[in-house]
């Protein structure tokens, strides 16, 4: 016994008939069947149907199990596939690609993680029916045909799309392909050849070819269903579908925090060896396989609770397979303690190469949900199964038996002898994990993880993101996601897991949607209320710049809602320690926590360092979220935090510079005899200066140019009050800042020296130790100088200028966007960092102006503004909104730190809606010949055959390939000891073909100038290939006729090629049966009593003896004869052979044996026995048959025959025939034939 490492199933996806990609659990639990008729978009089932399965070229099954969706609709752009290539791509490979991505999504593996990974792909491949359709007309093939259908591409396409570097192998073991692919994948992972593996397969029933092959082989059930292990087993019903699973070592899965769906304990494969036939299974081989599967890993047979068998429903395979299972796995079971046995094929049909994947996924669902699914189509166990009393097939679902080991074995067997088996167990139970029955959802009952309440919610605010590669897919996904939320658990752990799964374990695509919420219910409400135009499309990763708020934006309890973020809390704690060392007598965190009436945050000595500390903490927090600027600019004291963000000064220096700046401002407030103030004005600097005092009436100065029509003025408090009054009189915006001192004015000059002395040594020392590598640091754009500055130019004196000089905010922002140099990317997002969005209005005005081109040149900038925090809005919600907007615009952000989901207790939710594909376009390449074969055919006519797909233009061609077993009545037409296709057979071929192609409702069908040129001899066991062609007759120089057609009948053999047998003209008309011949025949019928009655059996003996016409029962249909010289009346009986034949295809109007009996008067009309000779019809001037003729078994028709000419020397003669039906009591003419030339066979036999 080997110590084989268990493998984890971490994700799966499927396409199942009847349900598609969702709902399989409920479908199987209810024991439903996905059987249906063949959808019209696959092929014309009626054209291929024949009740006899061994009839080549036909299908006896009445239906199968089909996917509910359009298999030709595809989303090629998702997979980077162009339209032409998509049309050439086999729909089976398309399904596999979709399932592979959905499986990765289900496992929580992103495309970024997969790219370059040593992950293998093992695909269960099969023949391409799609290519078979194209192969009918390879002149229409394309550059992509080979890569679109070749079996190697099943695996290679998946590897290529994901960028996987592990083994990539397509496996063909027939119906065992899926399980063999899983087996090979297990071996590859266990050997270390790859770290994980995709295993997938797909089957699409989009053509008749393989169907015909299987049916001719006799493997399909007439019902098209699988009666797995049932007494009714007669063959299998086909199905289509797809599946994909992802496996990896269990230890790796647990270490990565993957959701483990099930565990593969062992896999095995073998071959049946030499049996009675290559498709005959071997019970001993299957028993050996099942034994090895358990013994190699030390698993007791009796602990396997359920066996998912191959269960195709064939009368040979099912007993062999189930008997092997009973002998090995159920060896110690009993009727009271049975092994449960089932097969998903009873529900979904036999999906052939992909069948094992659907069986596997069924087993995983049962193990996850503690349930056993029933079989569909089951009534009683097949009596041929040995040990059947130890097995039980369920007809209703049941809970997993109490105390039973959650272990299943499953088997798959290929019709070429390949056998594969798998042993699965339930995922290891964690005490915190509970499974929701039916939904297949993983809910984790964790204690709340560091919850920080949003106002009134009691729950943590989270950022939720959805994305897709197209707006159509995004809208569809949002809709399906909303439906999902309607039944989502109302737990904090679910909300956390949902945010984790969407943010960290899902691929983020260009079309994005982000929203914050604290519960599933609030998330649903937020999504419903968010306008659709807020869903963004991303073309490139945006470049972000920061602008830092200056003084005056502070407010009580600013940013306190962010302290549950460890990065933010640690930054404030670090600032608190630095401030304490610098001599602060107050605690930063305490001051920030105070309420409105107790807060001293507007005091200069506190407001300055507090605002800077909050900005530094925001920079650190956003950095941990992955939000890092490429450039920074600061307004006034905001430049301190900007310099830190650009790694020009250290964290400690930034706190010190702001702290001593606050001390300096406090000194001005305390010592000044003239109080200062500051005022924000909504006007230009020029207009503002017109409101300044003249001469020595007071002092005011432009302190900051915020935008082209927004400034801040600073100066004496009384002057500032006067300017405010003037501005208000002019209806200008005017708001006094909460600063208490006149920054950026001469008021600050008195403290400049002491301020410089406080920071000089600190700044010099710290400026040499930037926070981040200088090559990646953001560029710093100064609002003192209006240009980019570096660590070399920012010294202690710079901060004095920052305190005294006017703020050139416009110039700083313009420089940020105008700067050019190495590795400089113009920002397209400008984020304000500060306790409130004070710079929002002026910044937007600057950006608006920069976006307007000048002198037909390109605009300087095209950027948007985003705030971080906003007064009156929950800080977490505000910052999460910022992160969401940046994500929606294309930024890469760290969702683990944003949502605080780094803890090991979070889990990937496995029941989230899968990606919504954009299937608005059908990608299908069906060349004319292929399409004609799929859809252009008509119901098989037992005589005429199929309508051929190879017709050209207006030509209509029919082909029938048959043997005497298919048309056994032909054996009864023997002429001169050879079986000949009857003359009337060529007539019926013309009539049946004409009725098939003509939409005419005219009363009569007429065949003109029917020539039979060569007889069609048929040997026993000969495959007869007959083609009947119709071409519309030319109407002089005009267009082709719609009612008159030329026709000919030909046969083909390998030895002789093509042989023409008959030709003529056929048309429809409204003419009645009023000819002289008909009138004469009516009169003859009136005198029937005067004619001599003949014995019909004797007449057939004479035809055999003298005319060499040996008619068997099918042709002995003339039951009564009456004769006078040159005239014969006889009755024709329509036999039951019509009914037998018509069940195999469309009805034949008048079958050849019935028509042939019209001519059986020719012997009697020749006269005495001595005058009779072997003659056969070779030419007919005209056949006229009623379009409404109906022949029913048992019906009698009356025929009047007249000889119109006779050559005694050659015995050749001409005759005409009139047929009457008598259903109304009055003879009604329904057919008129003549004149017909009869000749000896040497003159041109039929």
From TrEMBL:
Chain segments carrying region N-terminal hotdog fold: 941-1073
Residue ranges of every copy of the Ketosynthase family 3 (KS3) domain listed in the record: 4-426
GO molecular function: 3-oxoacyl-[acyl-carrier-protein] synthase activity; fatty acid synthase activity; oxidoreductase activity
Residue span of region C-terminal hotdog fold: 1090-1246
Lineage: Eukaryota, Fungi, Dikarya, Ascomycota, Pezizomycotina
Naturally occurring in which organism (per UniProt): Periconia digitata
Active site (catalytic residues): 973, 1156
CDD domains: PKS (cd00833)
Protein name: Polyketide synthase
UniProt keyword annotations, A-Z: Multifunctional enzyme, Oxidoreductase, Phosphopantetheine, Phosphoprotein, Transferase
Domain PKS/mFAS DH, chain residue ranges per copy: 941-1246
A single GO BP: secondary metabolite biosynthetic process
Keyword Cytoplasm set for record: no
One Pfam family per UniProt: Ketoacyl-synt_C
InterPro entries documented for this protein: Ac_transferase_dom_sf, Acyl_transferase_dom, Acyl_Trfase/lysoPLipase, Ketoacyl_synth_AS, Ketoacyl_synth_C, Ketoacyl_synth_N, Malonyl_transacylase_ACP-bd, PKS_Beta-ketoAc_synthase_dom
């Amino acid at each position: 016994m080997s110590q084989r490492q268990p493998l984890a199933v971490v994700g799966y996806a499927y396409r199942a008939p009847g349900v598609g990609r969702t709902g399989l659990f409920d479908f199987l639990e209810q024991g439903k069947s996905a059987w249906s008729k063949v959808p019209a978009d696959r092929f014309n089932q009626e054209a291929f149907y024949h009740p006899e399965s061994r009839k080549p070229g036909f299908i006896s099954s009445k239906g199968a199990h089909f996917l509910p969706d359009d298999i030709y609709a595809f989303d090629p752009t998702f997979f980077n596939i162009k339209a032409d290539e998509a049309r050439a791509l086999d729909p089976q490979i398309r399904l596999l690609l979709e399932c592979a991505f959905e499986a990765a999504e289900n496992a929580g593996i992103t495309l970024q993680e997969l790219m370059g990974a040593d992950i293998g792909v093992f695909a269960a491949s099969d023949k391409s029916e799609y290519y078979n359709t194209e192969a009918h007309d390879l002149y229409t093939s394309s550059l992509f045909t080979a890569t679109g259908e070749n079996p190697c591409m099943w695996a290679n396409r998946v590897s290529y799309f994901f960028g996987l570097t592990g083994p990539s192998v397509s496996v063909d073991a027939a119906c065992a392909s899926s399980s063999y692919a899983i087996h090979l994948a297990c071996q590859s992972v266990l050997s270390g050849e790859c770290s994980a593996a995709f295993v997938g397969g797909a089957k699409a029933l989009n053509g008749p070819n393989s169907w015909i092959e299987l049916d001719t082989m006799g493997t399909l059930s007439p019902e098209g269903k699988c009666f797995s292990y049932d007494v009714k087993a007669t063959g299998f019903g086909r199905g289509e579908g797809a599946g994909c699973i992802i496996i990896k070592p269990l230890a790796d899965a647990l270490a990565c925090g993957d959701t483990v769906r099930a565990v593969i304990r062992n896999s095995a494969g073998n071959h049946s060896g030499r049996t009675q036939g290559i498709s005959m299974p071997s019970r001993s081989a299957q028993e050996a396989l099942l034994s090895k599967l358990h013994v190699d890993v030390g698993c007791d047979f009796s602990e396997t609770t359920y066996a998912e068998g191959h269960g195709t429903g064939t009368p040979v395979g099912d007993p062999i397979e189930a008997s092997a299972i009973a002998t090995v796995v159920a060896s110690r079971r009993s009727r009271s303690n049975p092994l449960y046995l089932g097969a998903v094929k009873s529900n979904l049909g036999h999906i052939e190469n992909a069948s094992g994947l659907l069986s596997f996924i069924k087993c995983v669902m049962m193990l996850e949900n503690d349930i056993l699914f029933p079989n569909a189509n089951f009534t009683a166990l097949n009596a041929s199964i040995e040990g059947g009393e130890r097995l039980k097939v369920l007809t209703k679902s049941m809970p997993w038996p109490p105390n039973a080991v959650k272990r299943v074995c499953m088997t798959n067997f290929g019709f070429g002898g390949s056998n594969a088996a798998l042993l699965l167990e339930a995922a290891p139970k964690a005490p915190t994990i509970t499974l929701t029955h039916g939904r297949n959802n993983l809910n984790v009952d964790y204690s709340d993880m560091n919850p920080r309440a949003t106002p009134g919610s009691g729950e943590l605010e989270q950022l939720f993101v959805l994305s897709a590669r197209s707006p159509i897919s995004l809208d569809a996904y949002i809709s399906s996601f909303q439906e999902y939320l309607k039944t989502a658990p109302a737990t904090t752990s679910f909300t956390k897991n949902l945010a984790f799964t969407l943010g960290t374990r899902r691929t983020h695509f260009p079309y994005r949607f982000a929203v914050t919420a604290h519960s599933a219910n609030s998330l649903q409400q937020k999504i419903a209320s968010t306008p659709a135009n807020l869903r963004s499309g991303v073309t490139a990763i945006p470049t972000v710049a920061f602008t830092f708020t200056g003084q005056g934006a502070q407010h009580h309890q600013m940013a306190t809602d962010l302290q549950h973020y460890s990065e933010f809390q640690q930054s404030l704690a670090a600032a608190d320690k630095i401030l304490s060392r610098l001599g602060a007598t107050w605690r930063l965190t305490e001051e920030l926590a105070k309420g409105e009436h107790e807060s001293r945050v507007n005091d200069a000595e506190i407001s300055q360092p507090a605002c800077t500390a909050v900005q530094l903490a925001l920079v650190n927090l956003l950095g941990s979220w992955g939000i890092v600027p490429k450039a920074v600019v600061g307004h006034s004291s905001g430049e301190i935090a900007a310099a830190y963000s650009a790694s020009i000064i250290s964290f400690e220096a930034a706190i010190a510079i702001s702290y001593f700046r606050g001390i300096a401002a406090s000194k001005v407030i305390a010592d000044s005899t003239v109080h200062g103030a500051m005022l924000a004005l909504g006007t230009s600097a020029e207009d503002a200066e017109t409101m300044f005092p003249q001469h020595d009436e007071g002092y005011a100065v432009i302190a900051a140019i915020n935008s082209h029509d927004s400034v801040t003025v600073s100066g004496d408090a009384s002057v500032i009050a006067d300017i405010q009054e003037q501005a208000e009189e002019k209806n200008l915006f005017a708001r006094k800042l909460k600063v208490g001192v006149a920054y950026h004015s001469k008021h600050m000059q008195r403290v400049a020296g002491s301020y410089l002395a406080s920071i000089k040594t600190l700044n010099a020392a710290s400026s040499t130790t930037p926070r981040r590598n200088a090559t990646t640091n953001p560029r710093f754009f100064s609002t003192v100088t209006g240009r980019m500055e570096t660590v070399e130019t920012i010294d202690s004196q710079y901060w004095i200028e920052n305190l005294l000089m006017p703020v050139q905010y416009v110039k700083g922002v313009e420089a940020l966007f105008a700067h050019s140099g190495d590795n400089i990317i113009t920002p397209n997002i400008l984020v304000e960092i500060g306790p409130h969005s004070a710079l929002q209005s002026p910044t937007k005005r600057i950006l608006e102006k920069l976006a307007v081109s000048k002198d037909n040149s390109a605009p300087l900038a095209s950027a948007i503004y985003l705030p971080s925090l906003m007064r009156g809005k929950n800080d977490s919600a505000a910052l999460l909104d910022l992160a969401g907007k940046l994500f929606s615009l294309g930024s890469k952000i760290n969702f683990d730190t944003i949502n605080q989901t780094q803890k090991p207790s979070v889990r990937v939710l496995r029941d989230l809606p899968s990606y919504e594909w954009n299937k608005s376009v059908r990608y299908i390449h069906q060349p004319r010949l292929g399409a004609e074969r799929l859809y252009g055919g008509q119901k098989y006519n037992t005589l005429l055959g199929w309508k051929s797909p190879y017709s050209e233009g207006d030509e209509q061609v029919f082909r029938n390939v048959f043997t005497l077993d298919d048309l056994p009545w032909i054996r009864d037409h023997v002429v001169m000891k050879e079986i000949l296709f009857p003359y009337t057979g060529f007539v019926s071929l013309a009539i049946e073909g004409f009725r098939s192609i003509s939409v005419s409702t005219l009363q009569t069908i007429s065949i003109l100038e029917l020539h039979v040129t060569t007889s069609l001899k048929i040997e026993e066991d000969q495959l007869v290939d007959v083609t009947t062609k119709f071409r519309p007759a030319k109407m002089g120089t005009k267009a082709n006729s719609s009612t008159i057609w030329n026709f000919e009948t030909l046969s083909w053999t390998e030895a002789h090629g093509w042989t023409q047998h008959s030709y003529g003209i056929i048309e429809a008309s409204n003419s009645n049966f009023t000819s002289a011949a008909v009138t004469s025949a009516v009169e003859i019928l009136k005198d029937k009593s005067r004619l001599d009655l003949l014995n019909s059996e004797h007449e057939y003996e004479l035809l055999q003896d003298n005319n060499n016409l040996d008619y068997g029962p099918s042709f002995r249909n003339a039951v009564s004869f009456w004769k006078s010289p040159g005239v014969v009346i006889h009755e024709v009986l329509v036999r039951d052979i019509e009914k037998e034949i018509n069940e195999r295809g469309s009805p034949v109007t008048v079958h050849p044996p019935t028509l042939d009996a019209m001519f059986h008067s020719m012997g009697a009309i020749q006269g005495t026995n001595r005058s009779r000779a072997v003659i056969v019809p070779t030419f007919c001037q005209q056949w006229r048959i009623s379009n409404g003729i109906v022949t029913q078994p048992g019906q009698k028709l009356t025929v009047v025959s007249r000889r119109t000419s006779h050559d005694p020397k050659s015995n050749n003669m001409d005759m005409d025939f009139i047929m009457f039906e008598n259903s109304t009591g009055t003879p009604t003419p329904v057919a008129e034939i003549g004149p017909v030339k009869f000749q000896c066979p040497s003159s041109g036999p039929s």
